[in-house]
Amino acid sequence: MNSRLSNATIAELPGAVAIPRYDRAVVTPGIVHLGVGAFHRAHQAAHVDACLADGETGWGIVGVSLRSPDTRDALAPQDGLYTLAVRDSAGEKLQVVGSILSLLVAPEDPGAVLATLTDPHIRIVTLTITEKAYLRAADGTLDKAHPDIVHDLANPGSPKTAHGFLTEALARRRAAGTPPFTVLCCDNLPANGATLHRLLIEFAKLRDASAAAGNRPLAGYISNDVAFPSSMVDRIVPATTDADRARVADELGLEDAWPVMTEPFRQWVIEDRFSAGRPTWERFGVTMVEDVGPFEDMKLRLLNGAHSGIAYLGLLGGHATVDRAFADPTIRQFVDALWTEAIPTLPDDAGLDTTAYTVELAQRFSNTALAHRTAQIANDGSQKLPQRIVASAMECIGAGIVPRHLMLAVAAWIAACEARGKTLPEAHFTDPLDAPLNDLLGQALPTEDTVAAVFNLAGFAKGHTDRRLLIELAATHLTKLRQGGPTLALAALDIGDS
């Protein structure tokens, strides 16, 4: 068995493997990242690694897992080092990333996480905790009844949620006279910085309501003194397999418990509003802007929206990976038509080149080296579809466009949920609403009643004047999917109908 990748063994790596071009011993933490998953390690951590190599040694990362110890257990014996495998049809390039200096597991020691967050050297907190971890109710406000929110309000010194950790850390920094850190959300939420800002203010108001008389309101401090720039992130990061681990180990001559697979493309657009400094990310491909909104909408509606459609139709059609699904001519035509519906919902005065963007997306979706699993993309549909699909569909109606292809993506999600335990494995993908979804879908309601109930459960298009039209469109598609799968549903859209 090979030795393990670590500070002590990194010099043994072959010359073809890129390694950190800086002395990790002199790097100090300046960033805490909540949610140390594969995406963060392929994206933000790689950008920070480039800044460290350029001599900006005050921006090392302390990674925090809010739930599972898996990443810490994999990387701690490796001194935080891991391999980034950049893959396309031309081959694979390996790079060892050294920007993560240490890792904490919040449930094991919330006090240690709070102590790190209150360290004056920490000037930025970044987050990739996935949409569901923002704990929003169906109307987008904070889910005040969520057990973890209730716990954090009662136990501010031992929080469980990102809301609890950030709010308590900011309260302690204010009390100590330490300037606040900047909170940089990197999740696929609409106006993600503003959304997180609003949720934290809601949480802080609940804390203020139960605080001792005379305490200065924390909600006002968070509202007025803490920066929450929005950002847009983009890089395809498929789940790492055992075969990936074995292949990377052969190339390294060392074991790496958790290498990360990714594509050559990466994009990061950030609103340039930081209260305590930042790395010079713009030197390494990051776009700093005044307003990230148009870039975010383009990515959510064209990349993420297409990804969801590909995932659910691909699963129903027996395609295990994105490239295989996208190679299906009918699914490819469906994606082109979905883009045709979604593009008019984007601003035409923001300098967006949607033609070049969709050409590049088609190349990325065709990357056979990534093996990006459709089941991975299918997770958490109830949290993802509102901003990826439903928002576009509502704006289409306002522009006089019938969103037939967009609503097929929603219908395919419902059909894929129904297929679990039947034509798909029972736990092939998951959703925060699985329990009520499974109960609802097991009732064998008429199709339109099923769709309406799912819309109510997930809060899709709540309050929108044309909500009934969206339900009717999705129900028409779901009928076809139930009768003849994607082939019949796509043929009914004149796709693949010979």
Provide the structure class: alpha/beta
Principal-axes geometry comes out as globular
Q: How many distinct beta strands?
A: 11
Q: Report Rg.
A: 23 Å
From the structure above, extract its key features.
single chain; 498 residues; alpha/beta; Rossmann fold; N-(1-d-carboxylethyl)-l-norvaline Dehydrogenase, domain 2; 19 helices; 11 strands; 46% helix; oxidoreductase activity, acting on the CH-OH group of donors, NAD or NADP as acceptor; Mannitol dehydrogenase
Provide a short characterization of the protein structure.
InterPro entries: 6-PGluconate_DH-like_C_sf, 6PGD_dom2, Mannitol_DH, Mannitol_DH/Oxidoreductase, Mannitol_DH_C, Mannitol_DH_CS, Mannitol_DH_N, NAD(P)-bd_dom_sf. By secondary structure, this protein is of the alpha/beta class.
How would you explain this protein's 3D organization?
- By secondary structure, the protein is α/β, with parallel strands linked by helices.
- The protein folds into 2 domains: 10-289, NAD(P)-binding Rossmann-like Domain (Rossmann fold, 3-Layer(aba) Sandwich), CATH 3.40.50.720; 293-491, N-(1-d-carboxylethyl)-l-norvaline Dehydrogenase, domain 2, CATH 1.10.1040.
- The protein is 46% helix and 11% strand.
- The strands form 3 sheets. A 5-stranded parallel sheet has the order 5-2-1-6-7, sandwiched between helices. A 3-stranded mixed sheet has the order 4-3-9.
- α10 (293-316) crosses α15 (381-398).
- The radius of gyration is 23 Å and the shape is globular.
- The termini are far apart.
- The model has no long low-confidence stretch (mean pLDDT 95).
